[in-house]
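--- STAGE predict ---
source: upstream dedup step, 1 unique chain passed
mode: sequence only
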Amino acid sequence: MPLTNEERSLLKRIYQRLEGNTPLKPGDEDYLELYQPIYGRPGCEDPVELMQLHIEMSSVESIQLFSGFRGAGKTTELFRLKSQLESDSTVVLYADALEYIGQSDEVDIVTLLVALAGAFSDSLKNEMQVDLIGESYWARFTNFLSKFNVDVSQLGIGVGVEVKMALNSSPSFRQKLEQALASRVFELKNHVDKFVEDGVKAICKGRGADAQVVFLFDSLEQVRGSRSNEQDVIRSVERLFADNYPKMFKLPNVHAVYTVPPWLQFSAPGITQSNINIIPAVRCWNNDPERSECREGCDALYSLIKRRFGDAGFKRCFGDETGDYNVLAKKVIDASGGHFRDLLTLLREALLRARSLPMTDEVIDAAISAVRRRFLPIAIDDARWLYQISKLRSTELPGTDAESVSRLTRFLDTHFVLYFKNGGEWYDIHPLIRDEVEAIVRRHGEATAAGVPIASDVPLVPTE
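--- STAGE serialize ---
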């Protein structure tokens, strides 16, 4: 039977509740309905709890690195950390790094220090209504430059907020700024620290001498470059952390949390895995040859679907539950690889194809095929490496050079490869591409045995 108007309205409401690009914030009207807690499960550490405990057990200042692969829910978890800390009267300032640093450009320590201080200043004013004697960091920074006979006009901009705009959007400005302060980095660091100290004093004046201050600097992991300069940007981020962590990243009397690219654990000397708290995918299978089902992870994602659909909507869309799971919902979970955003995408694609309710097996299969096509084609060299990962459950990174790191970063960012953590860390390839990767490797092996030359950089497009 065709969809009724009431059913179309139902699907529209659910479709909008499956949007996965906007972080959820505690306190938002629908947060409790939509947020799925997944970390209170056996063998699964809560990254927010770990960060909160680190802050609580440290003295007056600390530094933490937080990460997650694209779509893992990192910013949502940062907002949960912010809410939990604020419930204990901690002052929490939040800033998005991409408002201050260009996403596609190389980043230098001068740029980062200025961005940090400016973001701290803006957060003070916006969240705490604290303005240091009417002087923002941007005004103080122009005065700092003048001490070294550097006029902002020489850098091609005006004054005040224009510094922030140029820092974010003008590579030529950043280059001139870096050149002007290249020999004065430590003076700049002292200047930034003094500003932060003044900000903390202003907070303590209003909140009490024992006020605890936390600064969350989000989205730094999204500085990744474009196709033409990706490797140069990766090298710049590696240098930034290898040369300056943690001495330049610490802020006086502040507990700082930076989001960083997860691939730093592979490539940056001194930044080991133990220094980076990385959000894993939800584990729907175990790290054994058979990929036996991990019940706790499947339960968490099943609960997420029910939250987004609502109990009545779930039954209307999927039909009755048989046994522990509804068969169609479980098929979507298995195809998602335990990745939140992929799960939501699969569900949205299914709703678009529903012509009657409850949905059919054919509708779910069509949605899975539509999402799978986004992963294709796969180049032969990529298939070889992906096949190796699927068998070893390890990345086996060929080297720490920018090209290898860039390639692995692409696998992880596009979810070709999924990161899991239960006790130790391990990797696997996305279930949507398992069969295709194996088929490509098999076809290539058979062609090689038959003496047929195949260019390794030519993708093989499967026929469906």
